[in-house]
Specification:
It is built from nine helices and two strands. The protein has about 240 residues and is mostly helical. It has a two-stranded antiparallel ribbon. Helix 2 crosses helix 7, helix 4 crosses helix 5 and helix 4 packs antiparallel against helix 7.
Amino acid sequence: MFGIVFWQTGSTIKQQQDIFNILGLIYGSALFLGFNNCCILQPVVATERIVLCREKAAGTYSTLAYAIAQVAIELPYMLVQVFIFATIVYTMIGFQMTANKFFCFLLYMVLSYMYYTLFGMMTVALTPNIEIASGLSFLIFIVWNIFSCFMIRREMIPVWWRWVYWANPAAWTVYGLMFSQLGDRTEPILVPGQPNQTVREFLEGYLGLEDHYFNLITYLHVVVIAFFAFIFFISLKYLNFQRR
């Protein structure tokens, strides 16, 4: 569906709207699919937590062992899922077929799936039931969507809210995917009401996607994944909502 709707969108960029179309594709790929993964996973983790509490009380199962196993078992699924999605969509939408750009696309999609998955697991561990976990996740995802630089670009966000953009993992993913695919393209594009600009100049001037932040947002992905995993483990270890 993504490939057909955005057929060859990335192959020819001639005007501002072409970049906005690519931004929509990346926004949908990174956020909606990650949110779907999170929602599917939460009921499973909630059910398994009941068994963990029983086994932990009996002294037969370590919380650390369960947390490591829960995270590790998701990795092959995420890698296979992203690889299948990328090999189909990447070619259909017409992004440049270079090893470096395809790897970057895979990398940021995997990182996106990882923090969405771990966030879903963390919310289940932090809350007493799946209903509250789902509600909390939905509330946070609304904030992530609003400040992801798709609905409103960073420069138009009021200064007192701009910190939310920099604290938003979804914005980092959109940043990484957009800049890794378009940051080196120098063909001129038509911008209504302004002189013609290169793709790179438009990314920097209009969307605020600059080269010197690129490595930072990659490191931030790793930090937030580790943070969600740590909170997931601590919550499982010290929070017990089971009642006899």
